[in-house]
Design goal:
The chain is built from eleven helices and 13 strands. With about 400 residues, the chain is an alpha+beta fold.
Length: about 400
Amino acid sequence: MLRNHLTIAWRTLLRHKIFSFINIGGFAVGMAACLLLAVYANGEMSYDEHYANQDRIYRITSSSQYGEYSGKGVHFAHPFADAVREAAPEVEVIGSYNGVVNFGAGSGEIRRADRHENIHEEGLVWADQGLIDILETSFIYGNATAALTQPRTVVITQSKSLAYFGNIDPVGSALVINNNTSEPYTISGVIKDFPVHSHISFDFLLTLEGKVFNEGERDSWCCNNYVSYVRVHPDTDISNLEEKIRRTHEEHLMRDPSNSAASPAEIAWMKSFRFQLQPLSDIYLNNDIQDDLKHGDVRFIWLFGSIASFILLLACINFINLSTAKSITRAREVGVRKAIGSMRVALVRQFLTESLLFTFLALTAACVLALLAIPSFNQLIGKSLTLPVGE
């Protein structure tokens, strides 16, 4: 019976070619547009889901009030991470990075120590071993547990390793950064490139071990240049940990010699700090904190989701209207079928089979259209999205 319904549906499609093309084509274009927007929204919401311990990784953020002005931040002094580590046993690992451009992060001129031609590179950052551990980076070469524990070492990504050294193991080789030949950096590890859907994406992780950017900064709480992440033990009380961090920060800040002559307003500011542990999955879509990382905007997700739903609704309405209009011209066919004994159920099944066939063909065409359009769509939005049907 089903085979008979499909045969009749296919003959009907071929007999009314123009109608079929318009109906299937319009539905396919609508579904293709909806599919592209859905892939975009799904991609934006899937950042940082690749971490095995995602639910235990947080970024430390703070908010403070100085007079009438309030602010949020993620940058802290050099001793902050060590102080948190000592005060909070709930913290399994804490790691930091310094992405301040004035200290050489961001971009630079890099070359192999045995070459003379520099290459301008982006994605430089100063980081410690704790950050490597928290980010669960996959090492191709080198010791993952001690890659950034020695001074003047650097971990590079696989793509940069291939660009500079080809397919050989570069561990032990040296890179010259910004023509500073007196302090070359030894490659201590090669990691896989950060996933596309990662809010952190660096190519050169320069060790913080032994690095001093400002004189006395290792003991001073006055210079906030470091962003810290933590991985906590399971079942940690986050609110209690946030309070511990607040007390620790206030105690050290108040005791710091640079604040010995603080004014009442400055003392009130130091006591106003409140700390929040921001879940890893919330970082990308929350851009209310200045951190120089790439961010999405949840408002665009809602906007594109609404547009996608509206386009799909219009496509469905158009499909139904055309099918209904066409059914009027088939009244003679229905009458003949009834005259020769066709039951109402059989007629319903026949028309449903035709609708399902049209829908299946439209969906197939929509996937093809989306696959053809996604390179241009990626260029338009500056992403590297892929369709699930193309993977």
